[in-house]
């Protein structure tokens, strides 16, 4: 029995709305993919090596999957997740795959199940439903595909219809992978790969190794980070290098959305305190808050779009962090205050249309109460799509319902896949396009939107808006 993947996947159940949604979805489906925020390793495309076995490609690096199994008592080591202390982990791909398949029922109703099944079918052409009984058959079918030249990363990039893929790098990255892509003259036919400036590890004093990272920033930039002025100069120098490598945006993953406008003397004093190792958590938060406003000023100078991703309590599962490190599923969302937190930044620059700040949230309660009114009232603000814990069909629907009446469609920034899982990119964008088609079809059915307006809007949401907001150039001819 094949995986069920009807053309009406996620479209409205009501026949009239479904017919409208089909037509709208068809317009979106033919658009290239603009992926303005994600965490694909640029080495994947720079080196263009064959993917590893199915388990190492699809399970081991996917914290959506491994955290679910951990919640049911399966330790990440049993799924091949590397340990920080070198303790043994499972290395046999087929064993990992069988163990995962034995727990596949845990993902019923989750976006992970939807994404993975659609990846099997639409990327690899594997229709056999995953189960303990079919684990080996699915594994073998996927492994056979991965051995084919057509399933190398660069070939898939082209087949996926990606026009722009933005990766995310630290200022400490030498951008060598991007340099190799440029030297190869490669971005895929009609496509390109760009970097994004993500300075958290040199801004957040609570980040492991912050002081050493700032020292490294001095080495790579050629600026003296012993002083606050030199530190700012080093950041500006690295931003220039990122722009030269194609960056159009920066990204800031702070615990909160707080901003603070300190005087140069106050900021320098905080920085010096951090360099001495004397900063407490309040100092670290104040410095992060001030740097968000400092980065807004830099963006006014160099034009980088500013993405703000607040609200994650990092490494909440301390056992998991101690055993396996960062970014393996140990983070959780928290409530986030945008109205008061962003006030200093908005007071200073919120009405300056030269600045673009794309706001994201892990706190769904803020959609209507805070984010939509803010984006609907400040020239500098745009709303980013639901991400991470919220990037699911139900929340994507609720997002449109919650923000559209206040902020409209054109104060949003299109969909971001925010993924390390390269092979899931087309699937995730397809899900968002289907959800938007259903929402627009309902507005047409309720006589709140004309069909021609809905047709234009679905293409804007899928393609034109992210291309415009993230400054990826003009529209297609």
From TrEMBL:
SUPFAM superfamilies given in the database record: Metallo-dependent hydrolases (SSF51556)
BP GO terms, sorted: D-galacturonate catabolic process; D-glucuronate catabolic process
EC number in record: 5.3.1.12
Keyword Isomerase among record annotations: yes
InterPro entries, per database record: Metal_Hydrolase, Uronate_isomerase
Gene Ontology molecular function: any one: glucuronate isomerase activity
Reactions mediated catalytically: aldehydo-D-galacturonate = keto-D-tagaturonate; D-glucuronate = D-fructuronate
Source superkingdom: Bacteria
Record keywords: Isomerase
Coiled coil: none
A Pfam family the protein falls into: UxaC
Annotated metabolic or biological route of this protein: Carbohydrate metabolism; pentose and glucuronate interconversion
Family label: Belongs to the metallo-dependent hydrolases superfamily. Uronate isomerase family.
Protein name: Uronate isomerase
Organism listed in the record: Micromonospora robiginosa
């Amino acid at each position: 029995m094949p995986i069920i993947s009807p053309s009406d996947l996620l479209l409205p159940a009501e026949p009239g709305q479904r017919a409208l949604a089909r037509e709208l979805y068809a317009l979106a489906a033919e658009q290239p993919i603009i992926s303005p925020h994600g965490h694909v390793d640029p080495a994947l495309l720079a080196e263009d090596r064959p993917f590893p076995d199915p388990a190492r490609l699809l399970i081991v690096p996917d914290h959506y999957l491994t955290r679910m199994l951990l919640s049911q008592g399966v330790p990440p080591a049993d799924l091949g997740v590397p340990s920080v202390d070198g303790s043994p982990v499972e290395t046999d791909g087929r064993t990992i795959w069988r163990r995962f398949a034995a727990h596949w029922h845990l993902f019923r109703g989750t976006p992970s199940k939807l994404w993975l099944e659609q990846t099997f079918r639409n990327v690899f052409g594997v229709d056999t439903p995953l189960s303990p009984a079919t684990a080996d058959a699915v594994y073998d079918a996927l492994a056979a595909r991965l051995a084919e030249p057509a399933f190398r990363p660069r070939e898939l990039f082209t087949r996926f219809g990606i026009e722009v893929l933005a990766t995310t790098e630290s200022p400490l990255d030498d951008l060598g992978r991007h340099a190799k892509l440029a030297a190869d003259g490669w971005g895929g036919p009609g496509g390109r790969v760009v970097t994004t400036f993500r300075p958290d590890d040199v801004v957040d004093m609570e980040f492991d190794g912050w002081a050493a990272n700032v020292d490294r920033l001095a080495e790579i930039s050629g600026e003296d980070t012993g002083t606050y002025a030199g530190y700012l100069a080093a950041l500006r120098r690295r931003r220039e290098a990122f722009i030269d490598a194609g960056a159009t945006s920066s990204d800031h993953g702070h615990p909160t959305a707080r901003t603070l406008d300190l005087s140069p003397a106050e900021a320098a004093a905080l920085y010096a305190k951090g360099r001495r190792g004397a900063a407490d958590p309040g100092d670290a938060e104040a410095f992060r808050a001030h740097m968000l406003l400092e980065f807004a000023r830099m963006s006014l100078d160099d034009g980088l779009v500013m993405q703000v991703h607040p609200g994650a309590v990092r490494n909440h599962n301390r056992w998991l962090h101690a055993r396996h490190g960062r970014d393996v599923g140990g983070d959780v969302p928290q409530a986030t205050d945008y109205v008061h937190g962003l006030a200093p930044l908005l007071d200073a620059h919120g009405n300056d249309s030269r600045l673009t700040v794309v706001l994201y949230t892990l706190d769904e309660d803020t959609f209507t109460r805070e984010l939509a009114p803010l984006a609907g009232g400040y020239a500098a603000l745009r709303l980013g799509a639901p991400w991470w814990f919220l990037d699911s069909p139900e929340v994507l629907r609720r997002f449109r319902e919650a923000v559209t009446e206040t902020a409209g469609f054109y104060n949003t920034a299109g969909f971001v896949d925010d993924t390390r899982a390269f092979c899931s990119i087309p699937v995730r964008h397809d899900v968002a396009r289907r959800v938007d088609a259903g929402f627009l079809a309902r507005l047409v059915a309720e006589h709140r939107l004309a069909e021609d307006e809905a047709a234009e809007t679905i293409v804007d949401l899928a393609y034109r808006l992210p291309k415009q907001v993230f400054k990826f150039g003009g529209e297609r001819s």
